[in-house]
Amino acid sequence: MTLRLPNDVHARVSALAEADHISLNAALVQAAELWATERARGQIVAYAVDDVMARRSELLARLRDA
Predict the structure, then answer these.
(1) Secondary structure element (H or E) that encloses residue 31, with its range
(2) Which of 13, 44, 45, 65 has the greatest number of CB atoms lying within 10 Å of its CB?
(3) pTM (predicted TM-score)
(4) Which domain of life is it from (predicted)?
């Protein structure tokens, strides 16, 4: 896999990886894992909100009008 980063991003990530005593590759793997986890968490939250809105719409309407 080839990843092309803008020079400034490469420099920042490289510096952070060096400060953490890990390779640039390890830093990018961690970043990708974090991004994937956050995306999955966001999808779960969106599903839960949609479910609550659908199943509790009457209650939410009463609360809104109270």
Answers:
(1) helix 24-55
(2) 13
(3) 0.65
(4) Bacteria
What is the Cα–Cα distance from 7 to 61, expressed in whole angstroms? 52
Which of 1, 3, 38 lies closest to 13, judged by CA?
Answer: 3
> How far apart (Å, rounded) are the C-alpha atoms in residues 16 and 19?
5
In contact, 13 and 27? CB cutoff 8 Å: yes
For residues 28 and 35, the answer to whether their CB atoms sit within 8 Å is no
**Can you tell me the distance from the alpha carbon of 53 to that of 33, in angstroms, rounded to the nearest whole number?**
30
In tens, the pLDDT along 22-43 reads: 999 999 999 999 999 999 988 8
Query: What residues does each domain of the chain span?
Result: 7-65
- Which whole-number Å values give the CA distances from 58 to 18, 46, 47, 49, 54, in the listed order? 55, 19, 18, 15, 9
